[in-house]
Amino acid sequence: MEKFTWVGTFEKISEWLLQYEDNQEYLIQLLKKIGVNKGLDDQDNNGNSFLLQEIDPFSFIALILKHGEEKRNQLIQNLSDLENLNLETPSDYSGVPNVLPLGAWLFAYAKERQNSDIKTLWKLFVAIHRSEELELLFNSALEIKQTAIGKLSQMMFMLFPSKFFPLDGQTEHWLIENNILSAKKKKLWVDYKAVLDELTERFNYSFAELSHRCWFINTYDLNAENLDILLETNYQKISEGTDKIKGFINHSQKQLALEIGVKKNKSAGQNIIDLDNFNIILEHTLDIEISSQWRVVGNSNLSQKNAPNLCGKEVCVFRIKNELHSWNNVLDILDLYDGCNISEEKSFIDDLGIKIDIKKNEEKMVNHPLNQILYGPPGTGKTYATTELAVQIADPVWYASLTVIDIIERHKIIKEKYDDLIKAKQIAFTTFHQSFSYEDFIEGLKAYIPEEEKNIAYKVEDGIFKRIAIAAMKSQGINQSDIGLNQEPTIWKISLGERWETERRKRYFENGQARIGWSNVGDLREDLTEKEQLYYDSLKSNTHSTLNDFSSRMKIGDIVLCLKDQQTIQAIGIVKSDYYYDAIDKDDYAHVRDVNWIAKNISLNILALNNQTNLTLKTVYELYRMSWSNIIEELKKQNIEIDGLTTSEVVVEQNHNYVLVMDEINRGNISKIFGELITLIEDDKRAGKSDARELTLPYSKESFTVPSNLYLIGTMNTADKSLTQLDLALRRRFEFKEIGPDSQILKDMEASQHDVDIPLMLKKMNQRIQYLKGKDYQIGHSYFMPLCSEMDQAEYLQTLRRIFENKIIPLLQEYFFSNLKHIGLVLNDHPDDTDERKIIQDLNLGEDIFGYGQQPKGNPLFAVELNLDCFSDLKRFQQIYK
Question: Per the database record, which ranges form the ATPase dynein-related AAA domain (predicted)?
């Protein structure tokens, strides 16, 4: 059977669309003709509806894809007939992303739409066809309201399936697991392009095949039956095979086989196919050391019919046990065999499958203080240093593997990683200033006008510290590879039916589902009918938010806690699928999520985790006070055993580290900014520590604590305020690291050229400043970094003069504003030099500047002026240190 048949069809539609950039009204009328009945109404500023007048090619195709496969094929057939396109109706949609009907457009209603929005999308579409540079257009498209990286990449993938890959909820987890995506979705072309390049370089699969893989492993459990389906979709099947063994040819034209064993069913007294334990059989040609889980054996089950290249030879067998292995373990084996570069650092060890071997880098790991401040004079690279330090803390494994020595190239690589972690919200950056407040840092009230209302209302808005603290708390104790948690899982309370409906809950647990009611609302992915809309409008606001949370806000990898009563949880599950609607059984609930129920029939008292507060009867809502690590600890305290989670043999994966960088920390009012949280940041006061504390925040009234995997890095300029002037409460709670001028960096980077010794010049100036003013007022080496590029003598002199005129001299003027003659001492004015060679000249104002022969006694410290023209040649700079 031919596979991925949709690819050619949509490539043809993409070519056909090119001619309609200037005739968009025709495209809209065409959508109506082929049968798209909903989703074509625009809205003006008064909320009045009218037929769309303009449309982009991505939204055009999304309006077709928002329907189910049967209706989708009918629309494509109608389009083909009306336009004489001779389109092949796809027999499959493997790898095609889901499109939510309520959000199919990549632009907003006319009342919120910019004139350039749809034009930008057309320009991007045309530029792709012409193979032009895409960065500016792609980034501009992401700024359009209703356009996001997920929707845009999905439709680019559909219209150009060989060029682009969908970056959405289905693919994100797999990309993270394979170290292609650092965390959450990327937002700019440079990030998206890096993902595309990595996929192309590492895998021998098409983007359509990889997209199908992500959907498949998110949807189906690992067992032999499902692996057989995945192999048949992606590889060429050699023959029909048997129940016990099937053969395939991969993209590298290598043969492999799937071997399924049997097990004894004691109750029935017969043997049955064991889908949960099976073998993958490969030729013994892998360029790896065969370790304990591999065995070279004769191939008794193989035959010339199902895998002739393996028959009669020694083969390599990988034993899969689904209680030990995951999809990623199996796919890594298949990818390696197919010639894919799964990872430079991966090695095969013990029965747990494929892991990252980081033992050789253990000596590079450093224990960092939770709270530290880098302090020093201006220009010493404190903010620059926080980039490397933050990366070293947030991703120690990656940092330990970095082997680049060249300073410039190394910092470039680290900065790229830093930017990735910033976008993933694992690192945050803020600058303190005089008006920075508690409301900016922790939480405060924000005024807004609710929809359809005129009066101002207020809502609590989280500050930068609270946001990153919550993210860090959510990530604690997460081992994604074990049970499918995302990096920052949200905890949800859910009620599955009424309390007495035990059979319903039992059925959902057995089927691996979570279902909620209000089925008459219809499929929340589709446009609601008039009847469904009336029913929806009749529901209360609590029900609206429940349906929205369950269908939209809940993510794959989140945690659901099933209610037993208002104080007790009876089951714990991990969300495995996106929302879908299943109304086959009219007596059953129709809104569905697939869930891996990792714990059933337990009785976990929730009060300790929920601030001694009962759970409410609302069907679905977020339990924002909880984290996964807290749940695990509470399970242990209540002696509730869950195999693989609370048993003593389990090794918990190291927490993800989060970093908040606070630049210029001494410029803010520390007491005002930190408030009562100044106590909570202490090591032993943090969550899970010996003297852990929490408090109630004044605006939200939420309980709050600071997690132990949140690191705080501050910087302070000692020329602004010395350590002795710093808030004592802050000084007690932070470790201080001095960052002083480092002339060796300038030497290593060859800042000295044309017989000017820059490191020695900096050293001499700082010795003089320290004597006259103090070490807190020295000059940092970073001011001279522009001199590290190769230049001719004229350019070098011009650059050096600019550094002194725009940076060094103004800084010295600030230091010695009451005695400018000290600047002459720092820059080594020679007493016997002519005035033209001195930086400090006597002020010559004439003999009778006051009139009438008056001559008051002046202050000789003020009777001087700066002579910037003295730096007319390199010899004057050499004089500073000679």
Answer: 645-734
Which ranges constitute the DSSP H helices of 184-319? 189-202, 207-219, 224-234
DSSP at 216: H
- The 3-state DSSP class for residue 447 equals strand
Q: 6: Cβ–Cβ under 8 A, 6 or more apart, which residues?
A: 90, 92, 93, 94, 96
Q: How far is CA 284 from the centre of its chain?
A: 39
Distance of alpha carbon 857 from alpha carbon 112, whole angstroms: 71
Tell me whether residue 154 is exposed, middle or buried, using C-beta atoms within 10 angstroms of its C-beta: 0 to 12, 13 to 18, 19 or more: buried
The pTM score is: 0.53
Nearest-angstrom CA–CA distance, 38 and 667: 56
**pLDDT, tens only, 639-671:** 888 776 665 443 344 568 999 999 998 888 888
- In DSSP terms, which residues pair with 522 in a beta bridge? none
**43 phi and psi angles, rounded to 5 deg:** -135, 140
What b/e sequence results for 289-302 when a residue is b if at least 16 CB atoms lie within 10 Å of its CB, and e otherwise? eeeebbeeeebebb
CA distance 152 to 140: 12
Task: Please say if the pLDDT value at position 349 is more than 50.
Answer: no
Spatial separation of the C-alpha atoms in residues 134 and 125, rounded to whole Å? 10
Give yes or no for residue 387 having a pLDDT over 90: yes
Q: Where are the domains of the chain?
A: 6-210, 220-357, 371-432+656-738, 481-637, 748-879
The 3-state DSSP class for residue 256 equals: strand
Tens digit of each residue's pLDDT (9 = 90 or more) over 50-92? 999 999 999 999 999 998 899 999 999 999 999 999 999 999 8
One-letter-per-residue 3-state SS of 505-536: HHHHHHHCEEEECCHHHCCCCCCCCHHHHHHH
Q: How far apart are CA 523 and CA 533, in angstroms?
A: 11
DSSP character string of 749-774: TT--BTTB-HHHHHHHHHHHHHHHT-
CATH 3.40.50, applies to 371-432+656-738: yes
Determine contact, residues 490/555, Cβ cutoff 8 Å.
yes
- pLDDT, one tens digit per residue, over 194-234 is 899 999 988 989 999 999 999 999 888 888 899 999 999 98
| Distance between first and last Cα of the chain | 84
Identify whether the C-beta of residue 325 lies closer than 8 Å to the C-beta of residue 222: yes
Give the residues across from 297 on adjacent strands. 315
What's the CATH superfamily of 481-637?
ph1033 like domains (3.10.590.10)
Angle separating helix axes 24-34 and 57-65, nearest 10 degrees: 10
